[in-house]
Amino acid sequence: MSAHRERVKMLKRVNAHQQVNDPFWLSGYTDGSHHPDTGKGGVGLWVRDNETRILKAIPTPPWAVNSNLVELFGVCAAIETALTELTQEANILVIKTDSQSTANWFGWQGNKSVPKQPEALEMMQHVLELATDRRVKGVVKWVKGHQGTGSVVGYLNNRVDKMARDARLKGVPSRWSCRVNEERKQGPVAQR
User: In the chain, which residue ranges form alpha helices assigned H by DSSP?
Assistant: First the structure.
C-alpha cells in the first residue's frame, strides 16, 4: 500500500506543476450516492469535449464502503471516461464534484492528503498515470452541491446526483452519449 501511496503523491506533484500553454479543455461533473444501511452505492458522471457529451450511471465496487470512497470512484470514473472515450485532444481536464474530501485527495487548494483504502489508491494511481501519459493536467474542483437548477453547475450537479441514485437503486450501469450538431455548436459563438 505504501508504494501506491508514494506513487500517487508523486503523480499529484507532477500534475500540479504541469505547465499548459494554449489550453484546450475537457470538463465534467460527477456525484455519488451511498446508502449506509445497504452498503450499496452508485455514481453519475457527465463529461464533454466540444463535440461529444457522455453520461454514465455506474454502481460502485464493493470496496467503496462509505460516501467519500463512492465520490472518489465517481471522479476517477469521470477522468478515465473523459481521457479514453472523448475523441478530441486536450491538455486540461477539469472535473467538478460536490465532495470536498475527494477534491482534496486530488490536490484541490494544494492539499497533500490521499485516501487510505488500497483499492482507492490503486484507482487514483491509474487515472493519474493515464493523465500523465497523455500529458493532460487534471484538475478536480469542489463545487457547492444541491444549489437548484438555476445555473449550469446546479443543473449538472442535480442531473448526476439523480443518475448516481438510480445506479445505486438499480445496481446496473447505463450509458448515454451524443454528438453536438454543428448548428447548435456554432450558434452561441455567433452571438458573442
Answer: 2-16, 67-85, 100-105, 118-133, 152-170, 182-191
Strand order in the sheet with 92-97: 137-142, 92-97, 25-34, 41-48, 52-59, 174-179
Helix H or strand E encompassing 97: strand 92-97
Around Cβ 150, how many Cβ atoms within 10 Å?
8
Indicate the SS3 state at residue 143.
Answer: coil
> pLDDT by residue (tens digit) across 82-119?
999 998 888 999 999 999 999 999 998 888 899 999 99
pTM of the model: 0.87
The whole-angstrom separation of Cα 185 and Cα 25 is: 15
Nearest CA-CA partner of 106 in 85, 81, 131: 131
